[in-house]
């Protein structure tokens, strides 16, 4: 099963198994990753699953739709590799990806 590494704002790394076909958010919630709140349950309307994707894997993720793109304009601490983890569907090509959780996510 592919592994994705979540990096907390303090640098703590938490690698988790993410089944192919699952969203990153679903796997993070299952594993209790701090900072992935996912208030809307994956509907791309809350922004509480925001992550910064490592640059090496960013282009391997399907492009965001209009809803996600709009929400990414207003999330706290946006970056050029910001994505909603509920919209990142795991594939084998994303194995080894690293995502950083913005510090604001821990204040929700
Ligand atoms: S869970 Fe709400 S936007 Fe991702």
UniProtKB/TrEMBL annotation:
Domain 2Fe-2S ferredoxin-type: 2-105
Keyword Iron-sulfur among record annotations: yes
InterPro entries documented for this protein: 2Fe-2S_ferredoxin-like_sf (IPR036010), 2Fe-2S_ferredoxin-type (IPR001041), Adrenodoxin-like (IPR001055), Beta-grasp_dom_sf (IPR012675)
Domain of life: Bacteria
GO molecular function: 2 iron, 2 sulfur cluster binding; electron transfer activity; metal ion binding
GO biological process: P450-containing electron transport chain
Name by which UniProt lists this protein: 2Fe-2S iron-sulfur cluster binding domain-containing protein
């Amino acid at each position: 099963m592919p592994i994705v590494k979540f990096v907390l704002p303090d640098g703590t790394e938490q690698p988790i198994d993410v089944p192919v076909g699952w969203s990153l958010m679903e796997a993070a919630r299952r594993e209790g990753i701090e900072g992935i709140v996912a208030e809307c349950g994956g509907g791309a309307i809350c922004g509480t699953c925001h992550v910064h994707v490592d640059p090496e894997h960013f282009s391997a993720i399907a492009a965001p739709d209009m809803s996600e793109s709009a929400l990414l304009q207003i999330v706290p601490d946006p970056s050029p590799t910001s994505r909603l983890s509920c919209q990142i569907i795991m594939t084998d090509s994303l194995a080894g990806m690293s995502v950083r959780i913005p510090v604001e996510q821990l204040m929700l």
